[in-house]
Structure formats: structure tokens, C-alpha cells
Design brief:
Residues 20-257 form the ABC transporter domain. The chain is an alpha/beta fold. It has a single domain (3-273), classed as P-loop containing nucleotide triphosphate hydrolases (Rossmann fold, 3-Layer(aba) Sandwich). It has helices at residues 3-8, 62-69, 92-102, 118-128, 137-144, 160-172, 190-205, 218-221, 244-256, 269-273; strands at residues 18-29, 36-47, 51-55, 77-82, 85-86, 103-107, 178-182, 211-214, 226-231, 234-240. A six-stranded mixed β-sheet has the order 6-7-8-3-9-10, with helices on both faces. A four-stranded antiparallel β-sheet has the order 2-1-4-5, with helices on one face. The two termini are 18 Å apart. Mean pLDDT is 86; it is low at 1-14 and 260-276. Bound molecules: adenosine-5'-triphosphate (ATP). Residues 29-30, 36, 38, 56, 58-64 line the site of adenosine-5'-triphosphate. Adenosine-5'-triphosphate is lined by residues 29-30, 36, 38, 56, 58-64.
Length: 276
């Protein structure tokens, strides 16, 4: 199948079991006159139990997309729904609670507390929420990330890859609807990056979690079921069953001709939205 045909046969506009949906999301920074349009009408749905990578040239809006989707930032216009709930209708307090209870985050910097053991780092979000972990839940996640025998260690006693696995365990322990990764392998060497990506894949395939991750690395993106490409704040297309080579080819094209389209002319948002 050609890439154009692949794009045209991408996921449907609404899926049977969408956990997250962005509709016409626009995010402008600064005033209306000289503002920067970081997202320009992005519509996107994520199926439950899917692994999506978001790629695009620097400044194309990847982080902004992630932040809006995760309720860390409010879009200037458009809607974001998590399990059907419109995040725009929530107060700051309710949004904070939703992020804590139903969203997991894994960042490039592991953001672990150095004085706490692995177990205490993993259970921190639950304790902050005044919740007790479900029986066996902590053991389960530590087992899943391969750190059951390191539960009493502190971050400094672990490798970078192990520290990122602690961060993944921490993201998993609340059983979130979606786990967001912002360059989760950006600070890791190749071997550790491969382990962490394999773990994220496993979390999707075996635990049925939904993962969306921003990355600059075509090899990392190829671990996902689908890669969504952004260019100038718009969705430029997507690739199902990606390989590193095809992702890299897409990125080269995006750098050379910002928003590609099926007929070779500049695509508009409506045309691209049809692909979703
Ligand atoms: N807080 C902000 N204030 C003003 N402009 C911003 C802000 N955050 C992002 N932008 C602008 O919005 C656009 C998109 O930024 P964003 O960080 O989402 O891109 P990105 O694709 O994640 O980039 P990179 O790959 O370099 O991290 C850029 O032009 C950026 O300069």
C-alpha cells in the first residue's frame, strides 16, 4: 500500500472504543494579533489499548498537543474528551483530580524523589491522593516493570533505564485511562531505550493500557501501532504499522514540504481531518 493510500485508510473519525478525543483543538500563545498558533484545529481520536507516537519537526506543536490532551493546558478553542468527559467543562480542581486519578505521565527526566525508595516513589501519587493502593497492585506493577527485587533501592542506586521503569510503574499504579510520554527515552542509551519501549509495548498489549508518546526518534516511534505526524500545528497524516525507515522518510518529507497532501497541493485542516 502506498503512503497516501495508508493515510486515506487510517483510523475512522470515531472509533468504537475511543478513550480520548480531540476535536478541532486550537492553541494560540500570546495575544490575538501577534500570537503564535501552536495547534491549528487538530482532531484526533485514540482507541483504548492502542500505542500512538506523535512526531513532527521542532516547533510543530507536539508538546502542546500532549499538554492539551492531558489536561495540563487548556486549548484556546476546541474540545478534549477523556472517556467522554469534556475537560473544558471541569474546574481547575476537578481537572487536577482527573489528571491524578486517570492520567499517567512519563517524562524524559524521570522526576523521581531521590530520598524515597522505589516502592515509595511508585505509591506517591496514590498517597498524595489519599488513596491506598489496591491489594497486590504495587507488587503487580513492580513485577511488570521487572523491579520486584529493587523495591527498597533509591533512585541513585539504579541505572537510567531502571529509573525510567520506576517512573512507568508510578504511571501505571493508578490504572490510568491514558499514559502520556514526553520523550520517555530521550535521556537513555540505546539498550535502555529499547527496554523501556518494549515495556511500554507490553503495557499496551498485555495490560490493555493506552499510551501516547512524543518522540523525535523514528526507531522509538516504530514501537507504536500508529505514528501521527504534526506540521505547523496541523496533522499532516499518519502511518499504521510503522517501520523506522518509513517514519524517517516521512520526517524528511515533512521537513522539506511542511504539510503534504494526497494530491500534492498544500492540504487544509478539513482535508486532513477526514483522515481521522
Ligand atoms: N508557552 C509558550 N509561549 C509562547 N509560545 C509557545 C509556548 N509554548 C510553545 N510555544 C510555541 O508554540 C509552537 C509549538 O511548540 P511546541 O513546544 O508544542 O512544539 P514541539 O513540536 O513540541 O517542539 P520541539 O520538538 O522543539 O520540542 C512553537 O512555535 C513554540 O515556540
Amino acid at each position: 500500500m502506498t503512503e497516501v493510500a495508508e493515510r486515506a485508510s487510517g483510523n475512522p473519525v470515531t472509533g468504537p472504543d475511543e478513550v480520548l478525543r480531540l476535536e478541532a483543538v486550537r492553541r494560540v500563545y500570546g495575544g490575538s494579533k501577534r500570537g503564535v498558533v501552536a495547534l491549528d484545529g487538530v482532531s484526533l481520536g485514540l482507541e483504548r489499548g492502542s500505542f500512538t507516537a506523535v512526531m513532527g519537526p521542532s516547533g510543530s506543536g507536539k508538546s502542546t498537543l500532549l499538554h492539551c490532551a492531558a489536561g495540563l493546558e487548556r486549548p484556546t478553542s476546541g474540545t478534549v474528551r477523556l472517556d467522554g468527559e469534556d475537560l473544558g467543562s471541569l474546574s481547575e480542581r476537578a481537572l487536577t483530580r482527573l489528571r491524578r486519578d486517570r492520567i499517567g505521565f512519563v517524562f524524559q527526566a524521570f522526576n523521581l524523589l531521590p530520598a524515597l525508595t522505589v516502592v515509595d516513589n511508585v505509591t506517591l501519587p496514590l498517597r498524595l491522593a489519599g488513596r491506598k493502593p489496591e491489594r497486590g497492585a504495587v507488587e503487580d506493577v513492580l513485577e511488570r516493570v521487572g523491579l520486584a527485587d529493587r523495591r527498597g533501592h533509591r533512585p541513585a542506586e539504579l541505572s537510567g533505564g531502571q529509573q525510567q521503569r520506576v517512573a512507568i510503574a508510578r504511571a501505571l499504579v493508578t490504572r490510568p485511562a491514558v499514559i502520556f510520554g514526553d520523550e520517555p527515552t530521550g535521556a537513555l542509551d540505546t539498550g535502555n531505550a529499547r527496554d523501556v519501549l518494549g515495556l511500554l509495548r507490553e503495557v499496551v498489549a498485555e495490560a490493555g493500557r493506552t499510551v501516547v508518546m512524543v518522540t523525535h526518534d523514528p526507531v522509538a516511534a516504530a514501537y507504536a501501532d500508529r505514528v501521527v505526524f504534526l506540521s505547523d500545528g496541523r496533522i499532516a497524516g499518519s502511518l499504521n504499522r510503522p517501520t523506522p525507515e518509513r517514519v524517517a522518510a516521512w520526517m524528511t518529507r515533512l521537513r522539506n514540504e511542511p504539510v503534504p497532501s494526497a494530491n500534492g497541493t498544500a492540504a487544509n485542516t478539513e482535508t486532513m481531518r477526514e483522515l481521522w
